[in-house]
Amino acid sequence: MRFDKHDEGKSEDSSLGDTPITRRGLFAALAVAAGLGLLGADTALGWDYWGQNAAIGQGAWDAYGMRNGKINCCRGRSNPINQCMGWANGWTEWYAFRYAYVQILRYALNLQVECDYENELWFHLSFYPLTACGDDNYNPRGHRLWFAWEHDNLGAIKEDEQENNIVTFDGNLTNEELGVGTGRHDTGWKHYQYHDTGKWYRRTSRDVTHRWAADLNIFNIYVEGVSHDENVDALHSQTGWISSTVEHTYLTTEDIQGIVCRIHAADDDTLNWDVRDASITDATDIYQQAYGGNFNQLFLTEFTKVRDDTYQSDWGPVPGFLTTMRPAHVADGSRAVNASWGGPWDGKEFSHTNCTQPFQINSAGIQSRASAWWVTKRFSEGGALYGDGAMAIISDASGLCVNRPNATVAKASKLNLFHSGYKDGVAGDRASAWVVKEVQFTGSLTLNDGKPELTRVEPVACSDPLLTCSPCRNWSDVKKGNGGNAPTHFSYRWYQSETDEVPDGCSGASIIGTCHLSNFGDMPECAAYRHVGMNMSELMCIEALSLRLEGSPWQGSIRYSMLAKGGGWSDAAADGEPVGEGGRSLRWSAIKVWLTGDVSLHFDLEVRAFNSNVGWTAGYVSGTGLDAPTVDGVGDLTASNDLRCVQVDLIPKPEGAVVLRDFSRDGGTLNITEDEFADMQDRYLSCVVMQAFPTELRKGANHDSPLVHRFHGFVSAGPIHIAGVKVVYHADGVDDKSVVFTETAKPGHHAASAEATAAALKTRCNLNDHFGEEQSTGFTGWFSDTGLTRPYGGSELKAGEELHLYGRNRCTVRIEYAEGSLHPEEGAVYRTAASDGAPEVAGALELPDYGKGRESHSLGGIALPAIGDDGRAHKAVYWGERVAPAKPEDVYRKTSDGTWRRYVPMCWLTSASQQGESTGSITAKRDTVLYIKWSLAQADGVVSSK
C-alpha cells in the first residue's frame, strides 16, 4: 500500500483511507448532492452541466426532446440553453477493506450529449463525461478515500458501435472537498478535468440517426484489500445507449455555373462585392462597394470539384453542384472567393456561438472546400426576399453565410462570414441575402469611325471596345498585378453580306440544352452557352444529350449528332430529341451541331466540348444547307476520351452573311486585298466582337480548364459599304423615272449589260422594215450622253465611279388611206383653185413622202439625232415624241365637161373605217398608223361647179 499523504512515514499496512486513490481537480458539488442529503439545496452551487441535474441511477434523461428525436439548436431556450440528453448510471460500489473498520468505495458514470451549434450544413455536438464518487469510511480519522493523486480511471465515448470511440478520457476521482469525517460522503456529478470533446456532424440529403454511450474503467484501487492496477482486474461500467437523429439539410443549390456575374445585396443594388484595390494577393478582403463595371467586382462561376468524392455517399440525387467563384481581374484564374478559416471539412473548429470569419480571396484550386459555395434560394422561401430572387451564399466548409455586418449599407464596408448558430439562423436575414446577376458584353462599335462607304482598297478598323462597350475599363492597374497581362482581350470576326442589316444581339433567340450524366442522372435544362454537362468530374460523363432552340423569330431547326466512344457517329437528332439514353453506360467523344432553315441565315454557332484527358476544344459552324457530313465535329475525334461537357451558343450575323475572317485576337483591323475588294463590290462589311478571358493562362490541374472562357454576348460593328462602280441605265429619258436598270460593276473593263437592254425595250417599237412586230427592234443602243451622240462601246471603270448610260426606243408612224378614200387619178392635174391659171399641186392626193424633208427631233429640250428611216408614208420618231403630220390643203381638178371638182382631205384618222376620232397630233409610244380620206366636196348637193 502507498503511504498516506496525510501521515507520511506510516507503514504500508495502513487502511485504504490513507491510500491516495486518484487525483483530479473538481467542480463544486451539485444540486443532486442536495437531493441526496449531502448539501442543502440552498447551498448547492450552480450547475455547469445540465446532466448534473440527473439523479444517480436515473438512466436516460432528456432536455427539449433530443433523445430519439431530431437534433437542433433552436433559439429561445433558457435552462438549459441548448438541447441535450444523457444517461446517468447508478452507483458501482465495493468493499475496499473490511478489517478493524469498514471502508467502501463507489462511483457512478453519466454521459451528457449536447447540441450547442447548428447551421444549414453542420451540427456540433459536445460530449461531457460526468462522474460522481463517494465512500463509507469508518476509520476514526475519517479522511476521504478518493485522493487527487495518481490517475485512476480511463474512459471512452462511443458512437454507433461498441468499438467506435469518438474520444477517450482519463483522470482521477476525488471527494476530498467533502472534508473529514466518518460515515458516508458522496459527491454529485462532476466533470473533473476531462477535456471537453466535440464532433461536427454534416447534414446530408437524408436524416441520419446515431447513438452514443460512455464507458469507464477504474483502477489503482483496492477491492477487499487487494490492489487492482490499470492492467489487472480494472472495474468497468458503461452507460446505456442514447440516440438522436441528425436532420437532413433543406438546401438546394442554384445552377449559376458558367457565367460572369456581379453579386449585390438584395436590399440595395449599389452594394456589390468588390475585391479591395483589385489586389491578387492572398487574404485580400472583399468589401461592398458601388458598382462601376470594374473587373474586381466581377466573378466567374465554375463547378466545384470537391463534390466528386462524396457526392453519392453524402448527398444522393440532390439537384445542382457547388460553385467556385473566381475574381475576373486575376488574369491566370489562380484566386477564388474563399472562406479563409475553413471549417469542419478542413478540421477547423470555430466558436459554437455567433460566429464571424473572414471573407477573402485566396489561392485555391478546384479541390478546395473553402472555395466551394452553396448558392441557394431555399433560405428565403415563403418570404419577401424569395420573390426578389435573393440567395444565401453559404460556405461548404463551414456552413457560414456571406454577410453584411449588422446589415450595414456603408461603402466600403468589409464583408464577412456569419451564422447565429441556431436553426434557420439566416432564414429571411436580409444581411445575408444576395442577388447574382449575369454581366454580359454589351455596347456599340463602328467601322472606320462611322464612314458609310469604302471607295478604295484601304484598312477597315473596328473602333476600340474599351471606349464604348461594357464591362471595359482601363486595365493598366490590373495589368501590374497580373505580370503585364490584361484580364481579358477582344476577338474579332468579319462578315460580308448583301444586306446593310447589322444584328443587335440575338433577337431573343437562345439554345437550351440538357443531358444525362453518369453517376448523377438528368441535369435540369439550362442555357447551352453555360454548360450541358459538367467538366469537374471524371465520374460524370454525358450519356445522353438534347438541344433545342427557344425564342427565335425565324423558322428552322438545330440539329446534332454525337461520336460514340470507340464507335461511329449517331443519327442526327433535332429540336430536343435525345441522342443516347441515360442509364445504359453510353459514352461519347465528340459532337456536331448545325442549324437549318431560315434561322441559319441569321446565326452561326460556337461549339465547345470538354473531354477527359483532353480539356476543351472549340469550333465554329457557319452556312446554310448543312448536314452531318458537311459539318466538322468538336471534341475528341479519335473517339478515345469521354465527353463530359458541351457549350453551344448563337453568333448573330447579317442575313445570309459569309465569314470573311474568323475570330482573331489581332483582327481589329481588316486588311482587304485588291481581289477581295473587287469581289465584294456593292456588298457590306461588318464585324462581330467578343470579350474573352486568357484561357491559355488558366490551364493546369489546379483549374481543370475553366468553364467560363468569355463574357456572354456579342457586339456587332458596321456595316460599311464596299463601293463598286454603279452603272445606271436610262431608257427614253434622263431623270430618275427613266432608270430601267442599275448594276454594280467591278473595276476594269465594262460592257453594257444585256439585261439592261432587255429592260429598256418597249413593246412594238420598230423602224419601218419591222413595223408592228411584237419583239421590238427600234432601240438605239446605249450612249454615254443624253443627246445620244457618243455610242457606248465599253470603258475602263474605276472603283467609286458612277456611270450613267442612255438609250431610246424608236417607233414608226405610217400614213395610209382610209376606207373609201379617193386616190390620185393618172394624168389628172390638180390646182390650188378652180381656175386654169391657178398653180398646179404636185403629188396631190398622194400619201406624204417624209424622206424628202429635213429630219429633226427634240425631247425635253434635248436635241436628238436624226433616225434616217423616213420615207413615203412613214416617219421614224423617238418613243414619247409628239408627232403632228401636216394636213394637206383642198385641191381642184377640171373635168372634161369644163366643170371643176374640189377634193377635200379628212385627217388624221385613227381608224381605217373612220370609226375613230381624228387628231392633229399623237405622242408616239408604239408603232402607229394614221389615216387620211380624200373625198369630193359637195355644195348644195352638187359635187362640182362651172
Give a structural overview.
5% of the residues lie in helices and 37% in strands.
Show the helix and strand layout.
Layout: H1 31-35, E1 59-63, E2 83-88, E3 92-98, E4 102-118, E5 122-137, E6 153-159, E7 165-171, E8 183-186, E9 197-202, E10 208-218, E11 221-223, E12 226-228, E13 235-238, E14 242-246, E15 260-265, E16 268-275, E17 284-289, E18 299-303, H2 307-315, E19 323-327, E20 335-338, E21 355-358, E22 360-363, E23 373-376, H3 384-387, E24 392-395, E25 401-403, E26 413-414, E27 416-419, E28 434-438, E29 442-443, E30 453-454, E31 460-461, H4 465-468, E32 469-470, H5 476-481, E33 489-497, E34 510-517, E35 521-522, E36 526-527, E37 532-533, E38 542-550, E39 557-564, E40 573-574, E41 579-580, E42 588-596, H6 599-602, E43 603-611, E44 615-621, E45 634-635, E46 643-652, E47 658-664, E48 669-670, H7 674-679, E49 684-692, E50 715-722, E51 725-731, E52 739-745, E53 748-750, H8 754-760, E54 795-797, E55 802-807, E56 810-817, E57 857-859, E58 862-864, E59 874-878, E60 882-883, E61 891-894, E62 900-909, E63 922-923, E64 928-936, E65 944-945
